[in-house]
Amino acid sequence: MEDKKDNCDHKVHRKKVFQCRPGACTRCKQVKMKCDFAPGEQTCQRCKSKGYPCLVEAPKPNVYKHGRLLTKIRQKDAIIETLLKQLHNPYLATPYLIDEYLKRVSPSDVNNANVIAWLSRLKSREQIGMGCSTNVGEEDSGPLLHD
């Protein structure tokens, strides 16, 4: 135990330069053993005794975890986007929202027949059950013109 402590003392003095390797080398991984480094050595005891190069590979990035999280974020983003579209869609409005629209009509549009007619149609469609009205005429498809 004290030997491991001596091997890793170099790491404290020099940040980012690993004298004590963070993981096992490729040969030690094959036999599922930890690397044992002598003080000041760059090659583990197992590789040194057999004459192998002591190579420590960088750990693999957690691509699976990141990909899974990104997928979840994209799904939730799509849900939020559809909810926001529904929120701003006047054809999916609740009676409360329609009444709020009527209260918030600007003073210049209070006497505008197109605006009042559109809000009335909206309210009647909502009462039908948000279904499509069978009386679709030219007035439904045209844009609203404001004075």
Automatic annotation (TrEMBL):
PROSITE patterns (alphabetical): ZN2_CY6_FUNGAL_1 (PS00463), ZN2_CY6_FUNGAL_2 (PS50048)
What CDD domains would the database entry show? GAL4
GO terms (molecular function) for this protein are: DNA-binding transcription factor activity, RNA polymerase II-specific; zinc ion binding
Q: Which Gene3D superfamilies match?
A: Zn(2)-C6 fungal-type DNA-binding domain
Question: Secretion signal: which residues?
Answer: none
User: What Pfam family does this protein match (any one)?
Assistant: Zn_clus
According to the entry, every stretch annotated as the Zn(2)-C6 fungal-type domain falls at 24-56
Q: Which domain of life is it from?
A: Eukaryota
Q: What is this protein called?
A: Zn(2)-C6 fungal-type domain-containing protein
Organism, by scientific name, is Armillaria luteobubalina
